[in-house]
Amino acid sequence: MTSLDDRERARALASPLYGDRWVQEHAALPVSSPAVSPAGGTARTPDAGTPAPGEHRPPTRETVSLDGDWLLAGAPAGREFAIERWFGGQAPPAPVDWHRADTDRSSWIRATVPGTVQAALTAAGAIPDPLLHDHTHAELTAHGVPAEWPWFFRRTRVEEQQWWYARHVEVPAAWRGRRVRLAFDGVDDAASFWLNGEPIARHSGMYGGPEIDVTSLLRGDGTDEIVVRIDAPPRDWHGVLKPSPGWGWHYGHLISIGIWRGVRLERAPDLELDDLFVSTVRAAEGAARLRVQWDLVRHTPDEGTAPTRVRVLDPEGTVVADVTAEAVASRGTSRHAVEIDVPDARLWWPLGYGAQPLYRVSAQVDGSGRETTAGIRTVEMRALPEVSGDDVYDWQFVVNGRPLFLKGANWCFTDPMARRGFEIDRHLLELCVRANLQMLRAWGGGTVESDAFYDECDRLGILVLQEFPLSFGLDATGATLATVDEQASRIVRRLRSHPSLVMWGGGNENPDTISGDDLLTVIGTRVRQYDPTRPFHRTDPWGGSEHYYGVYHEGEPVEAYATHVPPVFGEYGLSSQCDLDSMERFLDPALLEQWPPPAHGAILQHQAQFSLFDLFKQARYAHYGPLTDWATFVEYSQLAQGDALRFASERLRAHAGESTAAYWFYKVGEVFPGASWAIVDYYGRAKLSYYRARQFGAARSAFAVYDRTALAAGETFSAEVHAANDTSHPLSGAVSARLYDADFRVIAERAASVDLDADSHALAFTLEAEVSSAAVLVLAVSLRDARGERVSSAWYALNAQPKSAEVAALEAAPLDSLTDRPIEELLGPYATGPAPLKEQPRTCLEARLSDGVLRVRNVGEFPAPIVLIDGFPTAPGAWLDDNAFGLEAGEERAIAFDLAGASWPRPRVRAWNADAVEPAP
């Protein structure tokens, strides 16, 4: 049986379409399989730069870093020749000629490379920080263009200019007379390049390039000057390989510009080894086979054998394979590959399924070489038993022969100004591990992630779907097709050896277009040529995956998720506010004293879609009680977000391996400070929704699946109670479920023993009860192991948000009919009414704090369905093991934490039905 994968693969490889001639020829290079012998056993004596048998020296390149201080200045995006100059009226500004060596740069500001123009201007005090207060709102409302567009879609003055970078370079004296290359790893986005006043390159695309042979132009006397002019970004993101949220369609506004990745000079030898690619041919514990591929680039007319030393080192650094391949290299580029057996092989597994041993593989010839890390693992995609056909992708992820159900989320880049380094990303990835988020969709509205990101995912076992940054349509010209082709080639070749990368995607929400699929056809072809080891999906959602925002954007209740159970749920969720501590970092705290919030620019700039109307959209799901102040609204919106994600996610998990394969809720972290769909905010602070995600994503857990969150008197509540064991070890234990009424009387209860094999789940039982009133209900589900130790617990609330007649009338109206109403009218009805979960019988908590553990005990007579730990600090590396959890009467939980050097001046524990207490030492 064919699948959509088969159809699209055949279609792409049959297409003669291409964008860039060099890439077309390079991708199709034939691969030789040179003869292999044990290292040291060849007739030729190794070059002095080649390590002797038993010795390992990592291949190195002679480079001079050009990172650090550059000079920066902006100028109007002038045109020397334009049709406007033929007629009367306002002509475009004339261009500047700052590439000239005699340019006076005394007024230029210092700019850090890697970095962005906006970061440099902020650091120099030339503009206020665009991510804080109302600075971007004020700029766009006063100066943004076109003026007739909504303010958040306009362009700032920075985004309307071209920007010039310049710096002098020192060239090592030993390099004189040798071939020298100037290499850029990322210039955002289209730029011209000069050296000593001479034009040397024109390049488009922010994911690498250009590399320029500058041998004949370098003087080497300390006066060499590099100048880069970066064009103003395009008005439209469609068809442009750039992160797109900054254009203003989603949340936040900042269109990045700058030299955002490293720059260097390289000494290029006559024979270079490049494009090292390591993949797994066969994977089994104790014995595996790797395929090692590389290019040889000969810059001289010589031709002959180029013995290439290929070595594999195990995670401890011991050489476990060492061979010499008799490659033949003539002028130009040739491609070679060998297969190498790895003895005593240790497999690389995704998070939660085993260890992540990383091998090092190096290839070296005549002193030129490359080294990469590799994990020994295979990935294949199979059809789900209940979902198959040539209109559906193969969605079951099979790693090392083991079918998996993957729990994950979308990933959005976290630093639009390229000034924070990797610290926050590392923190977020560690939080993903703690939440058992095994797979991330590197979302096509974001960026192609860094080597550091993939190195960390390799180390942690987090799988990644990397989408190309194309979002909401592919309208493009032939010129952009060439750029996309060249950039796709670079992206795939850079990342393809990472074991964490398991799938490529053509971008976010790019359905078939009237104007054609040129871009995705070319990208798909390049992926399949350069990396045949991984699937390529044309977009998400497509071929069985689904995105769904009827809940939230259309005001549908959370119950609407019950009819959305696709093979892969690629996007879903609610937006929520971030904590007050974070809000006080980007706006005046005085604004937080006003409720409903005023239509102040600082508030608008940091809302999910630049409008106070989003507060109303959040309130529909967060009305656990009266919404009368920011603190309450923050707490309720975060819990509502987590509860909605749980309702949808657990339903998919109940069908794991049969009709569902994965979920990727939207999303983990944040690109801008403010309200959003993230479960961890811009500063790295976990929301209450993060802890919900950690609870429902636990590898071993019991959970309830039901269709209704609100029931009237006389109706029957029915929940399927499931147990899941997503680990490599069997699990025996007991599942129990208890349904409480508003007074914590038990109205239904069931328990059952479960024996789960590795990677399995089961329906433990169905719990049913007739509801006597519309009062609140609380469902507690727990899983205990054979020793009686707690494995998981989950607490659910029904009838937790009763609606007054006024609220019901508001929510019955189409959302579009309410957008012009004052926010006071929309939020007013939510300021009154009951808080059912807070009005249940009161209980009492005790807490003790010592040695990195917070112990919380419910010493009262009644359950505490929502226990909250307040005040935990925000710091990279800091984590709290749980929050927003429930406790039965008499139950105690030990919550581990790590402050990562931060202070926690006033820890506090409370429940919605228990007073706050400060932990005793």
TrEMBL record:
Its EC number is 3.2.1.25. The keyword S-adenosyl-L-methionine does not apply. Pathway: Glycan metabolism; N-glycan degradation. It is an enzyme of class 3 (hydrolase). SUPFAM superfamilies: (Trans)glycosidases (SSF51445), beta-Galactosidase/glucuronidase domain (SSF49303), Galactose-binding domain-like (SSF49785). It holds the Pfam family Glyco_hydro_2_N2. GO terms for molecular function: beta-mannosidase activity. InterPro entries: Beta-gal/glucu_dom_sf (IPR036156), Beta-mannosidase-like_N2 (IPR054593), Beta-mannosidase_GH2 (IPR050887), Galactose-bd-like_sf (IPR008979), GH (IPR017853), Glyco_hydro_2_cat (IPR006103), Ig-like_fold (IPR013783), Ig-like_GH2 (IPR006102). It comes from the Bacteria. The keyword Electron transport does not apply. It catalyses: Hydrolysis of terminal, non-reducing beta-D-mannose residues in beta-D-mannosides. One of its GO terms (biological process) is glycoprotein catabolic process. Residues 98-235 form the Beta-mannosidase-like galactose-binding domain. Keywords: Glycosidase, Hydrolase, Signal. Residues 273-371 form the Glycoside hydrolase family 2 immunoglobulin-like beta-sandwich domain. Residues 29-63 are annotated as: Disordered. Residues 392-537 form the Glycoside hydrolase family 2 catalytic domain. Residues 719-797 form the Mannosidase Ig/CBM-like domain. Belongs to the glycosyl hydrolase 2 family. Beta-mannosidase B subfamily. This is Beta-mannosidase B. It comes from Microbacterium testaceum (strain StLB037). The lineage of its organism: Bacteria, Bacillati, Actinomycetota, Actinomycetes, Micrococcales.
